[in-house]
Amino acid sequence: MSRADGPAKRVVVVGGGIIGVSTATHLQRDGASVVLVTEGEPADGASGRSLSWLNSAGARSQPYHALRMAGIDRYRTLFAADPDREWLHFDGGLSWAAAGRRAEVEDRHRHEVAHGYDSHLAEPAEAAERVPGVAPAAIGEVAVHNPGEGWVSLPHLIEHLIGELTRLGGDVVRQAGRASVVAQHGAARGVTTTRGHRFDADAVVVACGADTPAVVAEHGVHIPDRSPLSMLVLTEPARTGMRSVLNTPRVAMRPNPGGTYALDHSWYEDRIVETGDGCTIDESVVKELVAEASAVLAGGEELSAASWKLGRKPIPGDGEPVFGELAELPGCVVAFTHSGATLGLIAGELLSYEILSGARHPMLAAFRPERFRR
Q1: What b/e sequence results for 296-314 when a residue is b if at least 16 CB atoms lie within 10 Å of its CB, and e otherwise?
Q2: What parts of the sequence cross the membrane (predicted)?
Q3: Helix axes 340-357, 154-167, angle to 10 degrees
């Protein structure tokens, strides 16, 4: 879109994850004057420990499915511009459940077929043929293969977008500390940070992951939050040829740049300990997760952990995304979602449209923050 004549709208975006960086970049593209403010370094929060599976798998509401499919479409456009990028691929996904839960897998497949999602039910031998590198014996009674799915390394994408943002004239303020929205005469008018910064603006975007509800709570806005503790493990480089995203009963995994793999799951959430200085987990849990990943690969490849990151995974209280301007604080726009990777590009595009045009985009109608009004 192109902005109207007149001075550029000043927008401060709070958050160095994919949603914040994408929104800042789209705004700058569209003619705004943008300052991106990050508490630490870009991608050092949830985006730096996301499995970042690009999908709309399973059962979900039609508005959410439509938004996710639009999100995947934007990634395909980015992929087509340079298919040789190491950090963005569309090599499909394969999922299966534990023994005795065949009906659950079949039900998921029916939901996907019902809204036109590319979904194939496959017995173990066929599934292993569809996804080379997976051990047939590891697959449950039946699997779902989604050939149109993909993955992205969000730290690489964030670096790519920040490069564009700065080339277009946007500013990035790193290590600014925790941000607070400044309100004047009942509207958002800028941001201050705990490290002494102040940025005046015509609009503010709060997109700081699991911290988003706390930031807007300072202005009496209630957004329910059920963000759990999570961990992402990166492996050492491996020689296995498995290129798809796998979702299995004990490990979720995807390829990662440099011949490595990214691993996560939920079974160990209660073994992560949160302290005032961050989060910790016993290294035995990391080794157990890596062993689970090794067990689903063909050829006897033994993976080993190179690093792991811990923290909160952003999830709104009802599981659905939260996008849009706050009725209680005009000029303040929130972006809070579990599906940050899949929605990253489309969310930034649509929020930029709303902020600069003043119109509400119909694709965000189901996700407005006012649904939580007490």
Answers
A1: bbbeebebebeebbbbbbb
A2: none
A3: 30
User: Could you tell me the domains of the chain?
Assistant: 10-48+155-224+317-372 (3.50.50.60), 88-149+226-312 (3.30.9.10)
Instruction: Of 14, 23, 357, 346, give the one whose Cα is nearest residue 164.
Output: 23
Cβ neighbours of 63 (radius 10 Å): 16
Token pair 């995947």 is at which residue?
72
Residue 89: half-sphere exposure toward Cβ, Cα within 13 Å: 15
Pair 190, 283: CB distance under 8 Å: no
Contacts of 284 (CB under 8 A, 6+ apart): none
To the question of pTM greater than 0.85 for the whole model, the response is: yes
Contacts of 140 by beta carbon, 8 Å cutoff, 6+ apart? 96, 97, 98, 99, 101, 102, 105, 124, 249
Q: Are 301 and 346 in contact (CB under 8 A)?
A: no
Backbone angles phi, psi at 11, to 5 degrees: -130, 130
Q: What is the structure's pLDDT at 321?
A: 98
Residue 81 has pLDDT above 60, yes or no: yes
